[in-house]
Amino acid sequence: MTTPEEGPAASRTESRAERPVESPAESPAAPDGAPDTPDGGAGRPAGAPLSGEQRAAAVAALAKAIGAINANDIVAPPRPPREVDLATPEEPSEESAESAESTEQSEPEPESAPVGESAPVERPVRRPAVPAGRLDVPLDDAQRRAALAAVGEVLAAGGAPAELAGAALAEFGEGAAEQVRADPWAVLALPGVRPEHADGFAKTLLGPAAQPGDPRRAQALVAWLLEQAALRGHSAQELGEVAGALRAQRVPDPEAALQAVLEDGRVMPFQEELPMPPGSHDEDEEPPVRTMLALERLALAEESLGEGLVRLLSTFEDGPGPDAWEEAAAAAPRSAQELVRAVSASGLVLHTGGEAARAEPAALLHAAAGLGLRVWAAVWAGQGRDALAALLPAGSPAAGRIGTVPELLSGADVPRALDGTLELDVLVVLDAPLLDVETAATLLEALADGARLVLSGDPGGLWSAGPGRFFADLLAARACPAVASRTPDFGPIGELVSGVGVGELPPVDAPDKEVVILTAQDGGEAVHRAVQLLTDSIPRALSVPPEQTVLLTPGHGGPAGTRALNAAAKARLNPGPGRFGGFDPGDRVVHSPALGVNLPGRVLDGDASGLHVELADGGRITLSPAQAGKLRHGWAVTAHQAVGRRWPAVVVVLPPEAAGQLTRQWVYSAFGRAERHLSVVHAAGPALAQAVAERPAPERTTRLRSVLTAQ
Q: Distance between CA 255 and CA 358 in Å, rounded?
């Protein structure tokens, strides 16, 4: 492999690189004047640490108490039908749109959970309890101003930034001032607030009464810890991990605190059976169990997913009949015949494969539409919609029946029944690994009984930005037919990506410079080489213009993060004073309206109404000043921001500081974004080969497999 301008790539060597271990919680310094005192029920001197045996016994006792709770029987109250909607925060954080697996630590804002679709009353309802003091009645302007002033006064009294007033009002409603005054640690639910901030706020408001063992503090900490875990992709946490994290936050008796939290109902406990240890043959022996804690919204989402998946399997209808399906399968391309036959026989089918395998769901879509079925396909991004449409045969009856997941959930151009469910016989969802558990549950709730659901995706790519690993858990559970594509990704890029998928970095023959590797000594040199490729080498040698090339890097910060790369790219391609909040007409940007949703575009201009942006799919939006303040330049993005899209040319930048964060999953996804050309600016040394060989993907703790087992 050679570079268009630079000559042969340097050889890669392998060595072991330690993977950073994520601590369950940081241990902040105690607020001044807040002594470490137990809550009085521990029966030991203040500050006396528990031994390892005592801790294990305390956690075991709490787990035993939780075992008496039949947590898997979730009874949901009925609700009236309503339109499904993909809720979008009015001003979401750019940082929250990035997966927590990124190299840069951020302070994301809470994600708005999608609102569930109307359903029969026996279906679980994923609706968290309304916080105390919050009203679901819209406030008029005068009420809002009064409520903002009141909560702002309380925040100021505790030394908190006034900017949090709006977030507090959104979180707690009209009674925000009273709630924050009564429970100062409630501010942990606000974006960017950490335990040390909440402790200082509580100490200022309460004085000596602000103690580490205050039950209100434990309540807020448990919810915060589980929310932080959700940002890392976990939909649940083991009891012992949460207890240990509380201990790190100086909660005197974590087990007693957890018991009180569970009685409050904001967190749901579950017990799961684990596989019997090897060599165990005693039928009377009780299997080992683990106790899990989950936020109510995530617990109900996974329960709803389990119920919805079983419902599709149990209400399956033959439809056109086996003869008609077999005729459609025989007429389909050979690579898609197995998928068509699987869908003819089951209400739920999984399909796995790389980029070339996307032709198989397209053939299924064409075949189902030809049978007269009401079909629809949903992809993650607008570019994927156009690419899938291009795979349909000319004049296909399925033309025009492709949209994005947000479009599907918002109801655009998709027929609905009176109860709000989608009037579809077959729904094909591509990019299924990108579905978090809440979005997936909303999708399942929107399907009527008897519908067929096909979930297709590449299991080697990045998972969802939100919590869970829906597609991977469903594959592992083997609860339905799964069709693995035999269609390989062709060419040098396909060969390289396939090798990465099995843990190897194979040398590939790239006579037409489809793949090149450049080495760099540090982040500064990596930026220089990447921008040179973007602006000069690739356009000159391969005739791919800069607007069809993207720079990919693991994180936003650092010497070679997206900020540094975008600043260098702007200086070369579109220099200007940034007169519209740091942006100029012609700037490439990426807009992130919700967690995991990233929309590339170009700045048109700005005026008093906001910043006008033309999106890559042809749409136009106007961003308010607050929204524009969270916009990012888009010459360089992270791999998480790039999922669901591909570019003619991709330059992957691997700086030294990202070495410990690289995984096989990340490299696979980043390399796979390239259609015609891939350049790798490699400054991570042996860590690249180490990551591909030994770090498949970050762990995620979920409950979906056990939920499906219990169904």
A: 50
The pTM of the full predicted model, rounded to 2 decimals, is 0.81
Q: Which of 435, 511, 428 is nearest to 474 (CA)?
A: 435
User: Could you give the angle at which helices 664-671 and 491-501 cross, rounded to 10 degrees?
Assistant: 170
* Residue corresponding to tokens 């993060």: 561
pLDDT of residue 50: 55
Q: In percent, how much of the chain has pLDDT > 90? A: 68
What is the torsional sign of CA 474, 478, 482, 486?
Answer: positive
In sequence order, the 6+-apart residues with CB closer than 8 A to the CB of 249 are: 25, 27, 28, 195, 212, 221
What are the C-alpha distances in Å from 327 to residues 147, 252, 338, 344, 427? Answer: 65, 69, 13, 11, 20
In angstroms, the CA 539 to CA 260 distance is: 63
Provide the pLDDT confidence category of residue 67 given band limits of 50, 70 and 90.
Answer: low
| pLDDT over 70 (residue 562) | yes
Q: Which string of DSSP letters, residue by residue, matches 100-155?
A: TTSSS---PPPPPPPBPPP--TTS----PPPPTT--SSPP-HHHHHHHHHHHHHHH
How many other CB atoms are there within 10 angstroms of residue 670's CB atom?
28
**CB contact at 8 A, 155 and 161:** yes
Distances (CA, A) of 604 to 452, 472, 565, 623, 632: 43, 40, 22, 12, 15
